[in-house]
Automatic annotation (TrEMBL):
Cross-referenced InterPro entries: AAA+_ATPase, ABC_SmlMolc_Importer, ABC_transporter-like_ATP-bd, ABC_transporter-like_CS, Mo/tungstate-bd_C_term_dom, P-loop_NTPase, Transp-assoc_OB_typ2
Keywords: ATP-binding, Nucleotide-binding, Transport
Name this polypeptide is given: ABC transporter ATP-binding protein
Record PANTHER family: AMINO ACID ABC TRANSPORTER, ATP-BINDING PROTEIN-RELATED, SPERMIDINE/PUTRESCINE IMPORT ATP-BINDING PROTEIN POTA
Domain ABC transporter: 8-239
Keyword Repressor among record annotations: no
């Protein structure tokens, strides 16, 4: 009865806590073997969604399907899924081997077979085989993460869910484990559903990313598309530093608003007459213009701040309409004595993206 072949499907999933609606009718299709990441700010509903998917909580309405089985009413222990928790929940008094074998023991597999599988999983997670007899309390934070992953894989789940598994780790270890997770995904071919509030983490690892805001998905797409063609102000701003100009098209498709001047040879926008939108341009695509005429769009302002960002310099320019525009330059293209200078900023229409209807 379902129209798609995806592994996991959500249809109009609503979750309410009393009068508060945490999820407003979410639709989602996750394909077999995908690394799918849900990103969103704190409180946007990510953990609520995961809890519904693994069966730790019940939907208020809507449907969850795993292949051709509806599972939203299925108890957690009967769902063929698995979760890697934020806090690891390993058994600290047991050895690494005993932890990894735990799911196999539950399934009453023979000791020899369990050990063989645990050793295979140690190899897969690139942990030395002699860790089999090591106690969890003697393992480092990163090693514990790997043991937890090995244990999750021992369950042999249809889908692995990750709820911010790296958030408690320091920067370098996080970077290492991000790469390892991506690699592990490739080697196992499993479906990974990953939750994070770190966009950077999502971009490094995922096949597709869903951006969640206040209980709805604002955009679901591959990372490049979300970066270069966000569908809303929220997504654009979530993706990092951007400049957004409120504009309206006139009868010729020429954009007006926010103090922008449109050059005579500027290609017409694809907005129709009277339509409004947000014109997006990234700080690295904004130039300090010497002559207005050379750029498709120009805007006048004054440099109010300058920040050194390692190899790059960021300038904040306040425009005549009171908007702050960010400009980024490589250190060697630095603007001398920038602060306080009146400047004209320019950018090409090729470097812009239009968020329609905003
Ligand atoms: N049991 C509950 N009772 C009432 N409200 C809840 C409950 N669980 C979650 N909420 C509310 O639902 C909203 C979504 O919470 P959720 O934990 O899913 O957010 P999140 O995106 O995972 O946030 P974080 O990144 O901080 O973990 C929040 O406003 C939260 O206060």
């Amino acid at each position: 009865m379902m129209e798609s072949n995806s592994l996991l499907r959500l249809r109009n999933v609503v979750k309410q806590f009393g009068s508060f609606t945490a999820l407003h009718g979410v639709d989602l299709d996750i394909e077999e073997g995908e690394f799918f990441t849900i990103v969103g700010p704190s409180g946007s509903g990510k953990s609520t969604l995961i809890r519904l998917l693994v069966g730790m909580d019940e939907v208020t309405s809507g449907e969850i399907w795993l292949r051709d089985k509806r599972i939203d009413q299925t108890p957690a222990n009967l769902r063929p899924t698995c979760m890697v928790f934020q806090s690891l929940a390993l058994f600290p008094h047991m050895t690494v081997g005993q932890n990894i074998e735990f799911p196999l023991k539950l399934r009453k597999e023979a000791p020899g077979k369990r050990r063989a599988r645990a050793l295979e999983l140690l190899d897969l997670l690139r942990l030395p085989r002699d860790y089999y007899d090591k106690r969890i309390s003697q393992c480092s934070g990163g090693e514990r993460q790997r043991v937890a992953l090995a244990r999750a894989l021992a369950f042999d789940p249809e889908i692995l869910f990750f709820d911010e598994p790296l958030s408690a780790l320091d920067y370098r270890l996080r970077k290492t484990l991000e790469k390892e997770l991506k690699d592990l995904h490739a080697r196992t071919g499993k479906t990974f559903v990953y939750i994070t509030h770190s966009l950077e983490e999502a971009m490094v690892m995922s096949d597709r990313i869903a951006i969640m805001n206040a209980g709805v998905f604002e955009q679901i797409s591959v990372a490049d598309e979300i970066y270069s063609a966000p569908v809303s102000r929220f997504v654009a701003e979530f993706m990092g530093e951007v400049n957004l100009f409120d504009v309206t098209a006139d009868a010729n498709g020429t954009l007006n608003g926010s103090g922008l001047t449109t050059g005579t040879d500027t290609p017409p926008s694809d907005l129709s007459a009277g339509e409004t939108g947000l014109l997006m341009v990234r700080p690295e695509d904004v130039q300090f213009a010497r002559e207005d005429g050379r750029h498709h769009y120009t805007i006048a302002g004054q440099v109010v701040a300058e920040y050194a960002l390692g190899s790059r310099i960021q300038y904040e320019v306040e425009t005549e309409t009171g908007q702050t525009v960010s400009v980024e330059k490589l250190r060697e293209h630095r603007l001398p004595d920038a602060e306080g200078q009146s400047v004209i900023l320019g950018f090409s229409s090729d470097a812009t993206h239009m968020i329609r209807g905003a």
